[in-house]
Specification:
The structure is a single chain. By secondary structure, the protein is an alpha/beta fold. About 35% of the residues lie in helices and about 25% in strands. The protein is built from nine helices and twelve strands. The chain has a seven-stranded parallel sheet, with helices on both faces. It has a five-stranded mixed sheet with strand order 8-9-7-10-11. The termini are far apart. Bound molecules: NADPH dihydro-nicotinamide-adenine-dinucleotide phosphate and the ligand O=C(O)C1=N[C@H](C(=O)O)C[C@H](O)C1. NADPH dihydro-nicotinamide-adenine-dinucleotide phosphate binds near residues 12, 35, 74, 95 and 118.
Length: about 270
């Protein structure tokens, strides 16, 4: 049984992780961590078990094996400090990180196991591989990425959309900085640019579509999530894997054998 500390525990994803832990036979909720000024602070985090929303300062580190972070980028530094202070593996699922924050992940990974996943679903991990493969196989195709999320989302393009763009660039051995067109404000695509379009509406959980288009033909690779349980269970699966690792910076791909499967199939 592993004991999980959830950071950002009062949020949409924090609540989904807490819910998923109630039915997991190998992992349980050990701490539901929020800001001290959170409206949830001190309230009960679960219906039947005696876990209350608590602050990082009150944490009992000996009762925790691994942390899962679904807070916001503003909390990243403090959350990594917590992992370092108590030598706890940490799965970071927050998106919208800037370059400095990404460097901070690598720095923390020198002393604790850190897994960063902009999307914890296996479907998106698979899409990443398929996008890399498609982009290499169709070197002249124009690549565009569409993503749709709920009206409350605070960052865009989504972390997943950026990860998929990076997979496409990697497939063509291109530097991401040179091909990232972002969300075009003038509507004009650069020659090798990868562009993004973003929809924010109602309760959409998470949708991504990568289009590779040549004149007269179009490949579309897409993924839709309709329940946050998918992300929650993926994060818990990653946490179980990370708990067994030495310090280092990992991705969801490290926990799966998708590359091996693809390589085996491509050799046939
Ligand atoms: N990797 C993945 O698969 C997925 C990643 N995400 C990402 O996870 C993150 C959270 O998403 P979601 O649950 O929808 O967001 P919410 O806004 O619902 O939750 C955010 C949580 O962070 C807490 N929080 C806000 N500001 C701070 C702060 N400055 N310091 C500490 N805690 C803070 C809030 O707590 P309170 O206000 O109570 O203090 C709340 O619990 C986003 O970055 C999102 O993009 C989302 C889905 C899947
Ligand atoms: O904020 C969300 O909700 C989501 N964020 C992640 C992202 O930015 O990619 C993953 C998921 O699609 C949901």
């Amino acid at each position: 049984m592993i004991n999980v500390g959830v950071l950002g525990a009062s949020g949409r994803m924090g609540s989904a992780v807490i819910q998923a832990l109630t039915t997991d036979s190998d992992a349980k909720l050990a701490a539901a961590i929020v800001r001290k000024n959170s409206s949830s602070y001190g309230k009960s985090a679960t219906e039947n078990e005696p876990v209350h929303f608590t602050s990082a300062e009150e944490l009992q580190p000996d009762q925790i094996d691994v942390l899962i972070d679904f807070s916001l980028p503003e909390a990243l530094t403090e959350n990594l400090k917590l992992a370092e202070q108590y030598q706890l593996p940490i799965v970071i699922c927050t998106t919208g990180l800037n370059d400095e924050q990404k460097e901070r992940l690598a720095q923390a990974a020198e002393t604790v196991p850190v897994l960063y996943a902009s999307n914890t679903s296996i479907g998106i991990a698979l899409l990443e591989q398929l996008v890399g493969l498609s982009s290499a196989a169709l070197p002249d195709a124009d690549i565009e990425i569409f993503e749709a999320h709920h009206r409350h989302k605070k960052d865009g393009p989504s972390g997943t959309a950026i990860t998929l763009g990076q997979a496409a660039a990697k497939g063509r051995e291109q530097r991401w900085e040179e091909v990232n067109d972002g969300v075009r404000t003038d509507g004009v695509r650069s020659e090798k640019g990868i562009g993004f379009s973003v929809m924010r509406a109602a309760d959409i959980v998470g949708e991504h579509q990568v289009t590779l288009a040549v004149d007269g033909e179009r490949v579309e690779i897409g993924h839709r999530v309709s329940n946050r349980k998918i992300f929650a269970e993926g994060a818990i699966r990653a946490a179980k894997w990370l708990k067994e690792q030495a310090p280092g910076l990992f991705s969801l791909q490290d926990t799966l054998n998708l590359q091996d499967i693809l390589q085996r199939l491509l050799k046939r």
